[in-house]
Write a structure and sequence with these properties.
single chain, alpha+beta, 3 helices, 35% strand, elongated
C-alpha cells in the first residue's frame, strides 16, 4: 500500500491510522497547527463525502469558530456544576455570568479536525475540564453540537 497520496482536495496526506497531515488554521481568533485526519481503513482512499466536508470546513472556518464559541459558552454554563467537579480547583473557573470568549479560548484548545466517512466532521479539542476525553465540536446535517470526543470517534 502506498502510504502517501496527493488528494485533489486535502492535498498531500500520509496514512497513519487514517489519512493525515498538519495544517495551519485560524480558529477561535488564533492561528495554530492542527492535525487534519480523514478516517479510513488500510488501503481505503479518501471519499468524496469527506472531500465535501473538508471543503465546507475550509470555506466556513470563521463562521464555525464563532458558532462553536457560542455553543461552548452555552455548554459551559449548562454543565458548570459538573465541570467544577472535574478540575483541581473549581474556584479558578469563571462564573457562568462572567465567562468570556477569551476564557473559553484558554480552556479549549483545538488539536485535530477529524473527517468521518459519513461526512460528519469534528474539531477535537483538549479541554481543562475533560482531560481524558477532550471535547468535540461536531458538525453534521443536524447542525453543531458539543460532546466529548468519544461521541464522534
Amino acid at each position: 500500500m502506498n502510504n502517501k497520496i496527493n488528494d485533489p482536495s486535502f492535498g498531500p496526506m500520509e496514512f497513519d491510522y487514517g489519512w493525515c497531515k498538519e495544517e495551519e488554521i485560524a480558529f477561535f481568533g488564533q492561528t495554530g497547527s492542527v492535525e487534519i485526519l480523514a478516517e479510513a481503513d488500510i488501503g481505503q482512499p479518501i471519499s468524496d463525502v469527506q472531500r465535501k466536508a473538508y471543503a465546507l470546513f475550509c470555506d466556513g472556518t470563521d463562521a464555525l469558530s464563532d458558532d462553536a464559541l457560542a455553543a461552548l459558552k452555552e455548554y459551559y454554563i449548562e454543565n458548570l456544576p459538573a465541570i467544577g467537579g472535574q478540575v483541581d480547583d473549581p474556584t479558578t473557573l469563571p462564573e457562568e455570568d462572567s465567562i468570556t470568549r477569551a476564557d473559553l479560548v484558554k480552556m479549549v484548545i483545538p488539536q485535530t479536525v477529524y473527517f468521518r466517512q459519513d461526512g460528519i466532521y469534528a474539531v477535537l479539542c483538549n479541554c481543562i475540564w475533560e482531560p481524558q476525553n477532550g471535547l468535540a465540536i461536531i458538525v453534521s446535517e443536524d447542525g453543531l453540537s458539543i460532546e466529548t470526543q468519544d461521541a464522534v470517534l
